[in-house]
Amino acid sequence: MEVEIDLDELEKEKAENYFKFAFEMFPEVEPGFLESKCIQFAFDQEGFNNFLVNTMLQNKYPKQQPCSSKAFVENKDDFTVETFAKKYPDPQKYFLESEYGSEYIAHSISFLQERFRFSSVYEIRQILRKNNFKLYVSYEELKKLKKSRKTPRHQSEIMQAIGEPPSVFFDEVNFIKSKEAILKYLEAKQQAREAAITEARKNGTLLTCGCCFSNDLLTEDVVSCSEGHLFCKDCVKKSTEVLMGEGKIDFPCLADCGSFFHIETLKAVMENATHEKLLKKLQEREIAQANIPGLESCPFCEYSVIPDPASRIFECLSCKKSSCRFCRKESHIPYSCSEVDDVNVQNRTYVEEKMTEALIRNCYQCGSKFVREDGCNKMTCICGALMCYICRKQISGYSHFSDDTDEINAGKCPLWTENYKLHTAEVNMEAEKAIEEIKRKNPEFDTDIYKRLKK
After folding, report:
1. Where are the coiled-coil regions (predicted)?
2. Residue 413 or residue 235, greater confidence
């Protein structure tokens, strides 16, 4: 009788066993790197042993960086069900429809590894990908799965995400932790609202929005301009968002009566962060209108200060950029303003940028930027996406590569390449392309500039 073997399951089991063994030898290793190696050598015992020996001898491997403990600590002082419900009236819909970047995805993977210690990393990433990297939806699906690991994941095995996640990540984590209480509160609030509307309808005290003409509004649903015209909070919120998007910070009445909405009135329809930003803009305008002698502003943001008269550089404490006080461009020390404007300097900068771009890879899925330090050309992004380091295309596995010369010549990419040779070739090729492009536009281009850049 033939026995059917699930190779995917066997690969996962072997890779997890290799991972546990190797992690004890190299506890500082970046888990994603080690995981990709364990999967690569899942059916190659000799290759795995050689990898361990070479790693020990060379002592060169990417190391994990500490993650802010904030991602896994519930801040009870910041979170309450009431404030959460005010910010997210329909949290399930919000978290399902929102799109986030690589930091959110990395911290989501880390959080799920922490919560589901009996689920394999492979399973967690597959479910995240299936759900378009939505944390809440993936969490709910993982809760229904059976254990795929025989032993729980050790704390040292959990991927340490790099960087600070967006604030919405913590909100989503709080929703996961307090889902039952939040939904119960929202349901009770909706029932109370329906009862209040019924009572107000009986008493004839329902209000009407002067913009969308909704006529079943309660007192807490409306705000007014300084002349007393009433509008629902949704209409005022949409209006302020449009005006702020146009760079405006004054918000006229929607009935065009000539009056405006007061800053304190707008607090009822804006998120705290947006309201604080508006307050800051208003303060900056007041400062600018005051005509304070010696006051200068950053060319890249609205920060203002009276700088040291002897300094040529404006050091911004807000956006952290350094700029020239004379030409108001980014600091170009040791070059003078006239040198920066010189064509050759501009061309050199262009070539430098192209050389840098040649080194950096961008994940096709989450946009993360990275440069390989070591390893093969099958790259696994922190979001789980697979891509080739050579051609930079999306791949599905090792079938994209070959170590056979004929197959490489036929179009396959090599699995292994020397980092220094590869990067040098890519940088030189892009630099030469950029120089040829500039020469076509400017025959007087300084052709020696590339020699200086290579130094």
Report:
1. none
2. 235
